[in-house]
Each structure stands twice: as structure tokens, then as C-alpha cells.
Design goal:
Length: about 150
């Protein structure tokens, strides 16, 4: 919502008046009430509205619990050891899918899951060497997807 305050041109295109929008904290509080599956559904529905380009990319990153402050961990009942996040993006329109895991699955394993859920959206996929597995490449090719790893 802060972006709309900073971008009057976009607000006018969308027919919005910044003075009538709720405060940022209102939206943030509501966002935190929604469960991850709901965000995934919303992301999937909005990605279906986009015209996709020919190239998609997949990558993953992780965060260890040590990186979080101990005060925050205690206050929020932060009990997991690490999070691994894998994101599938369309190279022209943005994020198509996000996968989060409290375990540390190998990139190629998560890649198979992401492919299965998004095979109708992927045509050429670029990925790092963590996805360089013969079975992953063969599954991509069998679905008509060109791997660039």
C-alpha cells in the first residue's frame, strides 16, 4: 500500500485514491492471518491471468534458524531448524509458484514437485547445477519442457 502512496500515476490508472486506502499495518496484519496454502492458491490464480514468456527459471535458497534473533524466536514460538524456499518464476511476468519446506530436500526433488504442479505453465526452464539430475532432465523432456541447466 505504501507503493500506491508513492506512485500516484499507478493509483490513478487503477482508479484508487491514496486517502481512502487502509494503513499499511491493516494489510500486513491481515496478511499474517492467512495460511500458506491460501497464499499459494492466490499466487496460482494470479499467475493464470498473465501471458507467460517462453522461459521460466527455478532456484532455491535456505535460511538456518541461527540467522534469526533469539528474541524473535522465543516471542514467535519459532521451532523449526531451517527453511528452504524454492521459487519458479516467469522471466517476463514474475513469480509463478513458491514451495517452502522445513526439511532440506535436494533441489532436484523439489524441482520435480514444482514441475508436476506447474507443467502447463513451463516451456523452457533454466536452473542451477543443483537441478542437474538425469531423472529431472528426462521428466522435463517427457513433458515437452526444454531444460537449460
Amino acid at each position: 500500500m505504501d507503493v500506491i502512496y508513492e506512485m500516484p500515476r499507478i493509483a490513478s490508472i487503477l482508479g484508487l485514491r491514496p486517502s481512502t486506502l487502509p494503513q499499511y499495518s491493516t494489510g500486513r496484519g491481515r496478511k499474517q492471518e492467512l495460511q500458506i496454502p491460501i497464499w499459494g492458491t492466490l499466487l496460482g490464480l494470479t499467475s493464470d491471468l498473465q501471458d507467460l514468456c517462453d522461459v521460466q527459471a527455478i532456484d532455491a535458497t535456505g535460511m538456518d534458524r541461527i540467522a534469526a534473533s533469539q528474541h524473535y524466536a522465543k516471542r514467535t514460538n519459532y521451532t523449526f531448524r531451517a527453511v528452504k524456499t524454492t521459487i519458479l518464476i516467469d522471466c517476463s511476468t514474475g513469480m509463478l509458484y513458491i514451495h517452502c519446506s522445513m526439511k532440506q530436500p535436494h533441489d532436484s526433488q523439489v524441482g520435480l514437485h514444482v514441475l508436476k504442479r506447474n507443467q502447463d505453465k513451463v516451456s523452457t526452464i533454466t536452473a542451477g547445477k543443483g537441478y542437474d539430475w538425469w531423472l529431472f532432465r528426462n521428466k522435463l523432456r517427457s513433458k515437452g519442457v526444454t531444460p537449460v541447466i
